[in-house]
Amino acid sequence: MLSRTLSIVCLIVFFLISHSNAYVILTPTPTINSNEINVSRPSPTTAPVYKKRIMKRANVQETLSLYQDWAKDCNENEKENEKEDIKGNEKLRQLWQTVTVYCGNNHVKTVTKTRTETAVATQTVSPDDNDNDVKCDDQCWSDYLWHTYGYGISVAQGFTGITCIIIGLYFMIFGYRYFRPTLGLVGFVFFALMTWVGLVNNEPLYGYPHTEIVYICVSIGLGILGGILFMFFYPLGLYFVGALAGLFFAVYIMSWQESLVIQIQVARICFIIGMGVLFIILVILLESYTIIFSTSFTGAYLFILGLDFFAHTGFINAILLIFDANPNHYNAYIMNRPVIVMLAFVIVLTLCSVGWQYYWNMIKETRLFGVNVVKEEKPPEK
């Protein structure tokens, strides 16, 4: 019995030793042929990496150059590329790689070009840079507008533009006159704007599936929900009339300079919030006058914004630069005469609307916002 036990133990020990040697002993490597040592094999082209924002960001001029490079890549003839591929020599062909280029208006295109000429989208415009001298010729301006709007007027642009124009006209003419419809439209605009901000900042690199449908349907759906809430919870909606006007007023003030008047992102956010709070306080202190100005200015700004979707002046780029912080998007805001004209007409329309609403509601009708004043009839004399 003892000898059998010792035999079993010896077998187990032998098995463990042989098993451990299998992990320790290395297999010999094959000998390298001396003739293959000096032969250089072409390495495969690495896939392009879409880099995110870097700490030191580019100025407006570099962003405009990026727009021009994208426009050249997105609009070039693919047949010409095929001819160049046939004519190119083997050494040059080894440098070519497939690059995904952002073609504006949420469209991307895959092109083939050499590494030395590849525009690597690593930088974006930063409000921290001072760009007092921006050089942009006719072709540069054309590519700048192409990156913002694309070619022509899309269905989404037309629908959004018409919606903004109609809402703007209502605010300028009937904003003070009708109470619940005004609160409903304020809720619609505020919720739709915040929904768009959330969508554009979380948009993936290649966009959403059916991007335009997503933006329109989701923004309108939540906008309608916000309009219904403000119509029924009117004590809250009343103060958002001033808050919405303060938001647009802050954006308007910052739009009077290329890359915006306020150059620091945190300062811009504080300025917008502070302006909204200021208008809420003015609603509490001077309700009638503040409501007249708020509806007039909001209507004028929305009207000009909607008109820009058809005129394509670059007016909307101020809003994009302020609210679009997506690292996959590259925004720049430069001013020229059409933009200045659009900004000036916001003031003109605001003053006209304030004069009209004040005369019609305060002088002629003696009306308070949301309060129907019924004149007491004198009892008939006996």
From TrEMBL:
- Name the domain of life this protein comes from: Eukaryota
Q: Name one GO cellular component term.
A: plasma membrane
Q: Does the keyword tRNA processing apply?
A: no
The family note in this entry says: Belongs to the TMEM198 family.
The cross-references to InterPro entries, in alphabetical order and at most eight, read: TM7S3/TM198-like_dom (IPR025256), TMEM198 (IPR040236)
> One Pfam annotation, family name?
TM7S3_TM198
- Provide the membrane topology annotation: Multi-pass membrane protein
Which residue ranges does UniProt annotate as crossing the membrane? Answer: 149-171, 183-201, 213-233, 238-256, 262-286, 298-323, 339-359
Q: Which UniProt keywords apply?
A: Membrane, Signal, Transmembrane, Transmembrane helix
Instruction: Extract the PANTHER family matched here.
Output: DUF4203 DOMAIN-CONTAINING PROTEIN, TRANSMEMBRANE PROTEIN 198 FAMILY MEMBER
Locate the TM7S3/TM198-like domain: which residues?
161-358
Descriptive protein name: Transmembrane protein 198
Q: Where in the cell is it found?
A: Membrane
Q: Does the keyword Amino-acid biosynthesis apply?
A: no
Signal peptide residues are: 1-22
